[in-house]
Amino acid sequence: MIPLGRNKIDFEKNRCKKIERNKIKRKNKTYNPFRNIMAPTKKKKKKIQNKVLNILNTNKFYAKPVKIKDKVIISIPKAFCFIENANETINILKQINSAIFNWKIKKIYFDYSNCEMLGLDASLVTDIIVLNGLELRKKIGLKIGLAGNYPKSESAIEIFLNSGLIKHLGISKVESPDVRRLDPFAYEKDTNLMTNKVIEYYNNCLKTSGFVLNDEGVNHFNKLVGEIIDNANQHCGENGIWYVSGHFSKNVKSEKVPKGKLTFISLGDTIYESLKYNTISDKTKKKLENQTKYHEKLFDFGWNEESSWTVFALQWMISRKKTDDNDRGTGTIKFIESFTELGKTINNEIPKMIILSGHTHILFDGTYTLKDSKERKGTKVIAFNKTNDLNKRPDEKYVKLLNNKFPGTIISCEFYVDKEYLKKIKEEK
Fold it and tell me: Are 88 and 77 in contact (CB under 8 A)?
């Protein structure tokens, strides 16, 4: 029998130690607003699934927003677009995602007061996240209030009203006669139907200046757009999802020439992930292995296998499904070339286009173009460097490795519809 007083327990000391241990645990714990998101609720015991949520959750697509009690304020930056400001744009979208899927949040305020440049691409991803969040909240009976203000510039306001969130929420009834739209939420996910809708949208943009694509042009773009949409449908993975959106304005005072936007977005696997884990072509696997071998000595914090393969995937005849009897792997780069050529102005203003997949951001502005390969006759490449050599590292201004990852792929295009330029190339060609 142990005498009283021996091995006496110091409850206060143990309590303090436990508090300290819990502090360390909380500090080291990764912020994850989704950890209990799909847990059964009192109102609905059945587990609820959402494809967009699953993709974002798997990719840890969240960041802490500014929170005041049960309200979140989302401060939209001056440039909210993937072409000009990809890193910050992704971070803001992570905050939106964290807020809409956090059951404790009762209201989200979108502050657009500093936004001068609103990209259709960023606007579309915002809408995808918010609409899926509202749908899921409705199923489990958790309401949320949405509020906000208007962007700062005329062009941003026009996209916001005609093709943005308040349009898709049914709040805005604006139907401007000077705007042509391709709505991403209006049609079924049928690749042939959407390809035809994209061609129709672009033709409607051209019609505002008195032009249309001829039969040859329709067939040409039909093939290229069809491959891009087919890639989005197949390469985003079994549980992926894709959207296409367009917005064209004829009468924005700040823009001398009518300007349009076209965005292809897939959520799911990135280009790199699709090539690394789903390539069935032995020839393509060998080419990718050689690409890593050539670039490995160049890898650092701004360049790695992901960005190397993403650039390589844009080249002619590179596809995870490439076989001897098809011509897959050419559509995206041909589309870029054709769209850039038609989208210029008489003053040689060149439209911008980006491909963003995972951490890799690739910019096209006419500085680097498709040129004949020195190694392989009859083949064109775009290596984004002065010597157009795929074995060398690209120009860091045009191929960037981002801090933030986008869980999928975005092809975002801007194009002009310049009547004088279109008239000139029609006469020349």
Answer: yes
Q: What is the enclosing helix (H) or strand (E) of 354?
A: strand 353-364
User: Tell me, what's the pLDDT at 197?
Assistant: 95
Let me know whether 135 and 184 are in one domain. Answer: no
Between CA 227 and CA 378 the distance in angstroms is: 21
**In whole angstroms, what is the distance from residue 396 CA to residue 103 CA?**
41
Whether the Cβ atoms of residue 74 and residue 113 lie closer than 8 Å to each other = no
- Are residues 216 and 183 part of one domain? yes
Question: Nearest-CA neighbor of 243 among 180, 171, 168?
Answer: 168
Of 351, 365, 363, 367, residue with least CA distance to 85: 363
The DSSP letter of residue 300 is B
Q: Of 145, 175, 205, which residue is a domain's last?
A: 175
pTM of the model: 0.86
Residues 158 and 187 in one domain: no
pLDDT along the chain (429 residues), means of 10: 49 70 64 52 54 92 94 97 97 97 94 97 97 93 94 93 92 88 85 93 94 91 89 84 94 83 95 86 84 84 88 74 50 80 89 94 90 76 90 92 96 94 86
DSSP H helical segments within 208-241, as ranges?
A: 215-235
Residue 320 confidence (pLDDT): 54
Q: Which domain holds residue 415?
A: 178-429
Which residue reads 């087919």 in tokens?
A: 230
What is the number of domains present in the chain? 2
pLDDT score at 206: 94
Q: Are residues 285 and 369 in the same domain?
A: yes
Same structural domain, 158 and 200 = no
Provide the residue count of the chain.
429
CB-CB contact of 121 with 263 (8 Å): yes
Residues in a beta bridge with 51: none
Sign of the four-CA dihedral 251, 253, 259, 264: negative
Quick one: which of 408, 362, 429, 321 has its CA closest to 125? 408
The pLDDT of residue 419: 92
Residues 103 and 71 in one domain: yes
Number of Cβ atoms within 10 Å of the Cβ of 219: 12
- Shared domain check, 138 and 63: yes
CATH of residue 54's domain is 3.30.750.24
User: Is residue 45 included in any domain, yes or no?
Assistant: no
Which pLDDT score is estimated for 38? 46
Instruction: Please check whether residue 14 lies inside any domain of the structure.
Output: no
Q: Are 42 and 79 in contact (CB under 8 A)?
A: no
38 neighbors 48 (Cβ within 8 angstroms): yes
Is residue 22 one of the residues assigned to a domain? no
